[in-house]
Each structure stands twice: as C-alpha cells, then as structure tokens.
Amino acid sequence: MIQKTKSNLVLTVALVTVSTGLVFGQQSISKEISGDGLHVLLVANIFGNVTIQGSNTSKILVSGEQSLKATTSEAELAVKYEKMGDTLAIYIQSPCNLFTLRRDKDKNDWGYYKWVEDCRFKDELHVDFKITVPQNTEVVASTINSGDIKVHGVKENVIARNINGGIEIEGPIISLARTINGDVKLDFLTNPVQAGEYYTLNGDIQATFSQRLDAELTFESFNGDFYTNSKDMTILPTPVQKSEDRDGFFLKIGGTSEMRIGNGGALLDFETFNGDVIVKINSL
Asked: Which residues, in sequence order, are CB contacts of 247 under 8 Å at separation 6+?
C-alpha cells in the first residue's frame, strides 16, 4: 500500500527567450518528503550531478539547481517524484526519454529509460541534485552525462551507475559501481559481507578499506595494473575456461586474475579497460 505524504516544493524560475527558438530556464529546487514507509531512494538523472548524504533526519530533503534548454513548443521537461511500495524514485520526465520504475533486485535493475528514436525534441534538463536521506536508506543512483555520483553517510546498500562521469561512495555496503568514462573511488567503512561489482572502461578504481580485509578478489584489465599494500594476499590458480564445438575442445587460460586477501570472504570483482585498480587497507 502506498501512503500519501505531505511535501513542500519551492521553485525559483528565471526564463529568457532568445531568437533561436530556445528557452533557457534557471530553477532552484527545494523539496521535503516524509520518510515514513520509505526504505529505498532511486535517483535517475540524465544530465548533471547526483550527491546523496545520509544523516539522522527522518525526511528526504531534495535541493539543487537545474537549467532548462528546450524548444518553446509542447516539450515537457521536469523532475518527477514517484512512489512504489517502499521506494521513492526521482527521475527526469521527458518526451524523448520515457522512464519506467520497476523492482528487480536480483538484477540490480530498479528503473530504466526508454529512448524514443527520431524524437523531434532537442531538449535538455540539467539538474545537480543534492539530497539528504535517513541513514538506513538503500540508494540506487544513476546519471548519464555531465555529472558525477557521490554517496556518503548511508548505512545500507549503494548501487551507482554513470556513463560520462566519476563515482565516489563511502559506506559499509557497496554492491555495484559502474561507469564508462570516469574514476571509481570506494571507501568501505567495514569489511564487506556481500559480493560487489566495480567497473570502469576509461578510468582508475581505488578501493580503500578501514580495517583488515578478508575477501576474494577478481581483477581484469586490458591496459591496467593491480596495486595493493596488503601483504596477506594469495594469488589463486589461473582459471581455465573450456568450450567445445564440432572441431574439438578449446581452452582459454587467463584473462581474469583471482586473489584471496586474509581469510577470504565476499567476492569483489574489479574490472577496467584503460585504468588501474588500487586496493588500500588503511590499518596497515
């Protein structure tokens, strides 16, 4: 059952029309939402930053700046708020990018945009979100262009996806951090107890652990190296992949390095294409 909650919305708008047929708007966002019954925050941005801070508050506080570049016709661009069960989704409404909210925790897929082909609108809503949430909130954050994702102070699981920007997360549970063009910085406050997947195509991954680490690690890179200050690491045997067709058997050796640090534990998967992976343990 979805409960109705009170919210306050304050917008300061400044619009300027220019001869090119475009409207440029500047807005300051200030919105307050009760956290009653909410456990998951999903933020799906398109252009701009997403900054999320956990605190002792019982409310979700949304602030930030947004700029609008749109045709003067029927295009509708706006920040939307939608609830599904215990999830609050904050996303961009657009005639070219249609958002669907769904819950598929096994695939880390909580919502997605469907891009409309040959859309006649050339619109852009750039939003830099600054959001404060209760500490016991699970966070699923994404953006696509012109922005970074930063999540701090959250005690529950964090999932982050980016394309053209970096990711920075501090917390005890980080199950997914993926970007294409950007660095990934992870600060684990406790030893991981569940599996994690961390990827960047063009960038470095730095994972810092505040205490002794017990985990299984995999590492794969085309033009990158793996670095660690841990001396309690064991290189596991190189995996062999076996396949078969009409001509016989094929064996593929290597590709992914497997390691155990300490006594082993949760599987942490690191992958880059043009970048290094750095695993640092602060207690050493």
From this structure: none
CB atoms within 10 A of CB 198: 24
Q: What radius of gyration do the chain's Cα atoms show? A: 21
**Cα separation, 77 vs 114, whole angstroms:** 15
d(CA 86, CA 121): 34
For β-strands 97-104 and 109-115, DSSP reports them as antiparallel
d(CA 49, CA 150) in angstroms, rounded, equals 8
pLDDT at 109: 57
Predicted confidence band at 2 (pLDDT cuts at 50, 70, 90)?
very low
- Rounded to the nearest angstrom, the gap between the alpha carbon of residue 87 and the centroid of all alpha carbons in its chain is 16
Contact 67, 25 (CB under 8 A): yes
Euclidean distance between CA atoms 39 and 257, whole angstroms: 37
Name the residue among 157, 138, 183 with its Cα closest to residue 266: 157
The strand ranges marked E within 94-225 are 97-104, 109-115, 124-134, 138-142, 149-152, 158-161, 167-171, 174-181, 184-188, 196-202, 205-209, 215-220
Please report the pLDDT score of residue 211 as a whole number: 79
pTM: 0.85
**Chain segment 32-49, per-residue pLDDT in tens:** 999 999 999 999 999 999
Show the tokens assigned to 195: 């599996």
How many whole angstroms separate alpha carbon 151 and alpha carbon 55?
12
Q: Which of 3, 10, 15, 2 is nearest to 62 (CA)?
A: 10
Q: How many CB atoms lie within 10 A of CB 240?
A: 10
> Could you tell me if 60 and 148 are in contact, meaning their C-beta atoms sit under 8 angstroms apart?
no
